[in-house]
Amino acid sequence: MRMVDLYVYNEHAEQPSAFQFFTREMLKYVLFPFFIMSFGKNKRTLYDIVTKTYLIK
Q: Distance from first CA to last CA of the chain, Å, rounded?
């Protein structure tokens, strides 16, 4: 997401694999109407928790 200077990393502080990124994007569109809000103290969305990715500014 270069346009807004946000980056997606996996739990090992590396670029996510193609499978992780694809799964994250598909879950985002499937869960979007219901689970756009953030969860927990880290304020991560459900699709980030499932795919074990982090959105970093």
A: 10
Residue 51 and residue 3 in contact, taking contact as beta carbons nearer than 8 Å:
no
Bridge partners of 39? 44
Question: In a 10 Å sphere around its CB, with 0-12 CB exposed, 13-18 middle and 19+ buried, how is residue 46 labelled?
Answer: middle
Mean pLDDT in consecutive groups of 10 residues from the start of the chain, 57 residues: 76 90 84 62 80 86
Calculate the CA 45 to chain-centre distance: 7
Q: What is the pLDDT of residue 21?
A: 87
Length of the chain: 57
